[in-house]
Every structure is written in structure tokens, then in C-alpha cells.
Design a protein that fits this description.
With 314 residues, the protein is an alpha/beta fold. It has 12 helices and 12 strands. A 5-stranded parallel beta sheet has the order 5-2-1-6-7, with helices on both faces. Strands 4-3-10-9 form a 4-stranded mixed beta sheet. A 3-stranded mixed beta sheet has the order 8-11-12, sandwiched between helices.
Length: 314
Amino acid sequence: MRIAVIGTGGIGAIFGASLAKAGAQIVFVARGAHLAAIRANGLSIEGDRGETLVRPAEATDNIAGIAALGPVDYVLVCVKLWDVESAGEQIRAIVGPDTAVIPLQNGVDAAERLMPLVGQAAVMGGTAFVTGSIVAPGVVRQTGTYQRMSFGELDGRTSRRGERLRDLCEAAGFEGVLSPDIRVPVWEKFLLLVPLSGLNALTRLPLGAWRDDPDLFALGEAALRETIAVGRADGVPLPPDSLGKTLAAIRSMPAYHMTSMGNDLLRGNRLELPWFAGKIVELGRRHAIATPANSFIHAALKLHANGAAPATSG
């Protein structure tokens, strides 16, 4: 089984390394020093689930070049949300009649954005539940022992390619969930991420700091309620206990937890804000649902969305 991992960061590296150890032929797509280190020393995963070294590791920065050996069986799209279209245009070269293209980003519209580029039949829905980050070129640290990938056909049918990937995940030692309605797990993760990312970025502080403040926690809960409302209005059958379940998850998470958007803000990097709070504002307008909490979060952070502004002299 041949799999292209587009974006070898905290999500793609971890899943790709696990699948490689299970016997899949993985091609890692990376850039710069990270790519050079993977080629020279292999890809190293360290952290709470133990250590994995994929060496030698097949790695490239040329997606089209992967097509020299024909289409791949699966494409795991793990780039940042602003790179979905540019990645999709390049992925087209390695997609065959049976290839499954599975976006594992944190937002809810990546599959929709990929379909015009690679073909509707190629795209499955997907979401990842894992936490990791690049700590050095060629080295990714996994935080926590949880590791789950959910995926499914967008029309709800059970497919052979979905079953094969589920079985491969099991062989790789992590949970692969073939979902009958992939919109639900995608949105359930989104419910958690919208308030977490928004409050983390607003406060520039880890979860425990704003969770313990009644006013800030109320803002996070309001953002969550709005997210649930627009998700249901958009046709996603979110369970009745979505609010309580998500709040319980937030309360149970470690106080030191930082989201990728919070870290990106602190580092002066570009933010995925338009696809988080911004997406809720957009869907709220579409379905005539008020979203004051997410509108505030989006307005307060949008000047940082493209990264740190250049310094100006007085």
C-alpha cells in the first residue's frame, strides 16, 4: 500500500511513521531543513507513546515527482488550512481512479475545497485526534498517548478503500475509525477547537489560565454554543449531549495545553483564524444565526491572521 503524506508535521509525521512501521510504503512531503534531516537521518517520533524511527525514509518536496511510480493508494493531506488549494493542485498528479484523498486538518471545509481540484470521487472526509509538533529538523514530539484517525466516504457508503485503511490503522497500533457519517467526528473535533483556539490566542496563555477565569470561560462556552448551533443548521446531526460532552473535555484537559493557533500567534506566524471563528461567523450569516462571541474573537484577532506585522518606527 502506497501512501503520500502531504505535510510532515505534528499530524502527518506521527500517522505516517506509524503506518510505515505497519508495512505501508510512505512518501513524506516536507520542506527545507526538516526535509534534509529526514533524508539524511530518517524521521524520528518521540514522546508519550514511545519512540519510532523511520529510516530510511522516502521524502520529497516535489509532489508531482511521486507520480513517476504511478498513482498512490491514499493521500493524507496534513498541511495548514491556507495551503489546501495549492496542495490540491499538486496532488492531482498522483491521484488515480481508486486513490483516496483524505484531509486531516482541523477545520470543517477542507474536503469541500479539495473536490474541485482532485475530483469529487477521490475525496473522503477525515479528522485526526493526535497532538505533536516539530521540535528539531527530522524530529517530531508527540504529546499524550491518544492517537486516532476517523475517515469515511462523504456520501456515507462503506467502501473497500475505507475498510483497507481501517485495517491498516489497526495493524499500525492506533485507532482507525471508519465512520458512517464522517461529518459528525469532523464537527465534534471542531466544537472543541473553536473555543480552545480562540481563547488561547486571545489570552496568549495556556488553557488552565483562562479556564479558571469565570468571564473567559463564559466566553469560551458562548463560542461553543454558537458552533453547535451553526453546525446543526448546516445539516450536521450533532448528538444532543454535544455541549456537555465538549465542556467536560475542556475541563479535563491539562492546564498547560496550548493550541497550535495560540503557539502560532506567539511565534508571529500566520493563523488559521478564518477557518475557525471566522468560519462560524460565515456560517452564522448564511443560516441567520447570531454569533457574537465568535464575531468578537474573530475581530480581536484578525489583524494577526497573516502573522506578525512589520515593525514601524515612530
